Amino acid sequence: MKKFETIRFEIDTRKVAVITLDRPQYSNAINSTMIAELTRVTGILSTEKDVRACILQGEGVTFCAGGDLTFMRSQMVLEREEIIEEANKITNLLSALDNLPCPLIAKVQGSAYGGGIGLLSVCDIIIAVDDANFALRETLLGLVPATIGPFLLRRIGEAWARQYFFTAKTFDVVIAQRMNLVSRIASSNELQEFVDDEVAQILNCQPQAVTIAKAYAKKLARDPLADSRKYSAELFADRLKSNEAKEAIKQFLSRS
């Protein structure tokens, strides 16, 4: 386990990474140190090609309370360009998490607000406990969910964004699932079991294929249709010719 101040990070023997937000006394609120440490970890994961999956979780009763208000207040004395530079550190972190080659699974053991929802918006699979609550509270403070907005809008769509970006109202896990912010709902007793099940499903698949399939899903969603059709045909040919596919199909046919 590597040593950090605001998070914990380890890679187990299965090559499954676990990132734990570790400021429970502050409801895992995001400050400059956490941004820097999470960014450092994404750099490690982007180079660890044999990592099969990553779990993002929080310590304590809250998953993440969003931005640390003390940290944000300290930025008020900065020049506008300096604030923009700090804001870019958050968006760069979210981009790095979004572009992790391995599947990113959120284990949401408690409520998430503001920037915590931003973290969820770049996860592939989100499993939340059934009593979790969510809110974008920025407008209560005279702010808007600006740094997380592009990622969250892509996740939930404009209709949901136009309901929740400006009202600051709290919504429950059922609404979160309807807006695609939560994949599965679990009781507190089931939460780890559900996470383990998702990891097992990933580990049961061919590792290169999983990495490519994740990247392919993002490409399909963000590229023009004509480009995607050409790329899809080429990708199918490349994977069918890959050693991984040849061996996996051979083993499958030998069992049938």
Pick out its properties.
about 260 residues; alpha/beta; 2-enoyl-CoA Hydratase, Chain A, domain 1; 2 domains; 6-stranded mixed beta sheet; 4-stranded mixed beta sheet; 11 helices; 10 strands; about 50% helix
Kindly describe this structure.
With 256 residues, the chain is of the alpha/beta class. The chain has two domains: 7-203, 2-enoyl-CoA Hydratase, Chain A, domain 1 (Alpha-Beta Complex), CATH 3.90.226; 207-255, no CATH class. Helix content is 50%, strand content 16%. It has eleven helices and ten strands. The chain has helices spanning 32-47, 69-75, 80-98, 115-121, 149-156, 158-164, 173-178, 191-203, 207-222, 225-240, 243-255; strands spanning 7-11, 16-21, 53-58, 62-64, 104-108, 111-113, 125-129, 133-135, 171-172, 184-186. The strands form two sheets. The protein has a six-stranded mixed beta sheet, with helices on both faces. The longest helix has 19 residues, at 80-98. It is globular and about 65 Å long. The chain starts with 6 loop residues before the first strand and ends with a helix.
What is the fold's blueprint, element by element?
Elements: E1 7-11, E2 16-21, H1 32-47, E3 53-58, E4 62-64, H2 69-75, H3 80-98, E5 104-108, E6 111-113, H4 115-121, E7 125-129, E8 133-135, H5 149-156, H6 158-164, E9 171-172, H7 173-178, E10 184-186, H8 191-203, H9 207-222, H10 225-240, H11 243-255
Parallel strand pairs: 2-3, 3-5, 4-6, 5-7, 6-8, 7-10
Antiparallel strand pairs: 1-2, 8-9
